[in-house]
Amino acid sequence: MKRFYTLATAMAIGATAVMAQTMIVVDKSNNEYRFGVDRIAQITFEEAVDPAVEMKPTFISDFGGGNVSIVFQALNSSEMLSLDIYGPADATYLNAGTYEINTSCEPFTICSDYSVFYPNGPEDDESKLNPASGSMKVADNDGVYTFDIDITMSDGSVFIAHYEGELDSYTSKPPVADVKEITLSACKYGSKNEMEPGEFYLKGNDADWGYEITIDVFAEAEAKELPQGTYTVTRSTDHSVGSIAYQFSSVDIYDTSVPSDKRGNLRFSEGTLTVTKSGSTYSLTFETTLMNELQYKFTYNGELK
User: Fold this and answer.
1) Helices (DSSP H) in the chain: which residue ranges?
2) CB 216 within 8 A of CB 235
3) What percent of the chain shows pLDDT beyond 90?
4) Containing H/E element for 3?
5) pLDDT score at 11
6) pTM for this predicted structure
7) Cα–Cα distance for residue pair 245/236, rounded to 1 Å
8) Is the CB of residue 42 less than 8 Å from the CB of residue 35?
9) What are phi and psi of 5, to 5 degrees?
């Protein structure tokens, strides 16, 4: 009986020792994690995958023919990735799809010869690498793009990156331009040297004198007053019917809400004047982009004298 008690006691102590065992896991950073063996139901070994590096596009250059260069900068590190991307030849924005790394420069490829990865930033030129294989998956949700990049570099290292957001350019949904609307309180026929038949030299201003505008319009030679119709800014010097002479049309901006470097006398890089008339009352709408890229819509309702 005494012998049995000793054996039973030994078994109990042994069982307690087993149950009290601890499994220690040490990660790559030498951090220890302890788990009680009695609490572990299953152990599974899986290959560790580094998390994707969050990046953002910092430079986009459209070369035409579906070829665009996009530079991505890591948000929390110095890593930089410049990709030479090829979409369909008639593409005017980045198309959704999977772009494979190769040297063919065909649609839906990334040309490895002109793409480069800077693991330590562009300042460390000696460490730069070219992509060797891999892909970039692009999704487009009404102008909100998702990039999932998985590329193996020329030294065998793998770079995984991610970006979700809009693109400043080369996008399926370009930003809507901010068009400033100006109502002219006065507009009249002006004059200049050597007026041609059918030429109407319009001069107007807003109530606050923040804008003084001159539009040199050409209609049919026999016209005695500005005819209804549409007139377009042109740089041609032949002054054809329906044209607005670029050389003699401009706006003076004094509006202090406009940045000082955007004010002054500015020509129109493009523009369209729409003219309608009811009795002696004109309705003028001039939509234009200035040489400094500001966009305006000038309107006037009233008589021209």
Assistant:
1) 2-19
2) no
3) 78
4) helix 2-19
5) 39
6) 0.52
7) 7
8) no
9) -60, -40
